[in-house]
Amino acid sequence: MSTPAQRPNILLITVDDMDARSPGRFGGPPGLTPHIDTLADSGTRFTDAHVVAAVCQPSRSAIMTGRYPHANGAEGFEPIHDGVPVLTDGLRAAGYALGILGKVTHLAPVERFGWDHQRDMDDLGKGRDPQRYRDSAVEFLTGAVAADRPWFLMANMHDPHRPFHGSAAETEKFGGAVGTQYPAPDVVPAPGEYPVPGFLPDIDGVRTEYAQYLASVRRCDQVVGAVLDAVRESGGTRDTVIAFLSDNGMAFPFAKANCYLQSTRTPFVLVWPGVTTAGTVQDTARITMLDLVPTFCDAAGIAVPEGATGASLRSAVMGERTPDETAFTVFHETSAKGRYEMRCAQDSSFGYLWNAWSDGEREYRAENMDGLSWPAMQDSDDPEVVRRREFYLRRAPEELYDLRADPHSLTDLAADPAYRTVLEDYRSRMRSWMARDGDPLHERFVREVSGVPAA
């Protein structure tokens, strides 16, 4: 166990709504994210890391409690339950100074987390100004170092969340903020300059919005760089453990606010002095962000909070995790309070989804359908686009995808007799996990799905 004098600093960087393949080191446009790429080169890059709920507040609450949303209370945009331990409890008791930049109210109740220093969206140029992030980070770090305290800083960027740079929605929401309250990105890709992700149709409106999104990714990278500069200049001489991730997938159809692979997979980097090795890639361990609480507790030499699940990533870095573990992810509620219960079990072979809300009539609606892409899909008469949009609205109670052949989840195999055995296998995995973790829909799943033979 670490002594107070040995405890490292901890920097948790989260970005908002970034697809796992957007940073250059994760397969994104070369040169678009130099600061994130440099960070990835300094530690271990995980290629199969997942958040457990692909929407902001539930994802972040799970990260800070080490519990699934149904176990911590924040299934939607509400506070965690009274009495649920959080990461900052143990860090505070161990002498850590606690700071947060951005997304402050997306961990609720705010006072429960005990921040010594907090600056929210409007303090940080709508969460998009590199200089304000740098200055706020320096302010916090200087105070912690002067007091000879280890520090924990959660630096949350609001890019590339909607509204995207250059969009009509940006002007509508923020008016003339660009250039006054926050800068434009220094690189603005053109529509069609980079291919759209494979789960989206390659049509004009999607190309335009994807370019706007990438411009926001670029500015996000500038903010990441500003925070890392502040840590290098003002963070003190203690070792610093750094974790980088996105809270969920990009805010486009078939991504954020769903349970697909592109909904929950996150670009994850861990820099842990003495544990990780610069420039390494972990591509055999499937992890979730429930592992962060045990990881930070391990680094700080403190006890893991009661009820937290997951395990320290030390074992994954060392290659001691069982390869190809199944990742279980969930979705409950949109930011507009639309309740769409979904569950997913996935590994490197298949992704199985249960859409408890799908009844053949109800239509799905979420913020990922705002902007240009969904209207462009609605206007298209291409048969494949029509098929995709109609499926997206109503889904099916069960979906099954061969992720090796179909990584973008385009061809649903749940009703294919050739995959009956596979379907039953993943149903069984889902049933066992729901029972083990106390999912409130477990009995319904058994009654409606798991006890019924595959079609």
UniProtKB/TrEMBL annotation:
Stated family: Belongs to the sulfatase family.
InterPro entries linked to this entry: Alkaline_phosphatase_core_sf (IPR017850), Sulfatase (IPR050738), Sulfatase_N (IPR000917)
Sulfatase N-terminal domain ranges (all copies): 8-302
Keyword Zinc on entry: no
Protein's name in the database: Sulfatase
Pfam families in the cross-refs: Sulfatase
Keyword Hydrolase (UniProt): yes
Annotated keywords: Hydrolase
Organism: Pseudonocardia nematodicida
